[in-house]
Amino acid sequence: MRLCRFNDDRLGLVLGEEVLDVSAALEVLPRCSYPLPRNDLLVAHLDAVRAEVQRLVDGGRGLQRHALDEVQLLSPVANPGKVVAAPVNYLRHLAEAREDQGIHHQNQVGEIQRVGLFLKSSTSVEGPSAPLAIARADRRNDHEIELVAVIGRSGRNIPAAEALSHVAGYCVGLDMTVRGPEERSLRKSPDGYTVLGPWLTTADEIEDVHALDLLLQVNGDVRQRANTRDLVLDVAELIAFASSFYTLHPGDVLMTGTPEGVSQVFPGDLMVAEITGLGRMSVQIAKA
Predict the structure, then answer these.
(1) Cβ–Cβ < 8 Å for 233, 86
(2) In terms of domains, do 31 and 161 share one?
(3) Residue from 172, 174, 115, 182 nearest 142 by CA
(4) Which of 27, 76, 206, 255 is 20 to 30 A from 231 (CA-CA)?
(5) pTM of the full predicted structure?
(6) If you average pLDDT over residues 173-177, what whole number do you get?
């Protein structure tokens, strides 16, 4: 299934160029009180929600339909507990980061196996329809397209051989970055700097997550093009790595790293990011 959040937190089933409003399926979610759970309720109960969505569709209950290009797409994950990110996880990006002073700012850029992962603020998460405001106009701000895995089942010390069974689904991500000397997690955590979309494609829809093409264009010019087969640590290995340090919960977001070709964006630019089988999202940089 391809499930999206749209407009005023409605739940949609994406079928071709239409969105069916299946918000009634959210009634299967449990009611919660304080203290609230440390996970995203929809992702934690995705199987039940999907079954109810299918029941609604099969029942032909006159679900409201919207044209896909007329809805406002929100992040497909409403409440990620953690945003886990993988730096320099493509060898060619590692090379360009080491060579470009505008990227490394005199910081040593080490291999992912040595420097590990980092966390981004959950308040940086946004959907593709919201204009993206440049956080520090006095700095270089770069685009970074990434495959994103959304955790669907809790786990700690997950073996790589079992890791993909913990994934609820995948989406396209933009790990926007302010360049500078500070730590990555600070420079990548401004509001709106983790763009997720256009929807959540459930894991069963993807035959091989390590054979997906990534493409990012800015104002029609191709900036990044790669395939997930070139990941240094693949999705399973990243999940195993992350879970060796902390428990992963449903709704946690894993950004798997960006390929070479990162470059600066400016107010008014239009970024278009797409990944095989996961859709295409257009993100407008707000004008100054």
Answers:
(1) yes
(2) no
(3) 174
(4) 76
(5) 0.94
(6) 97
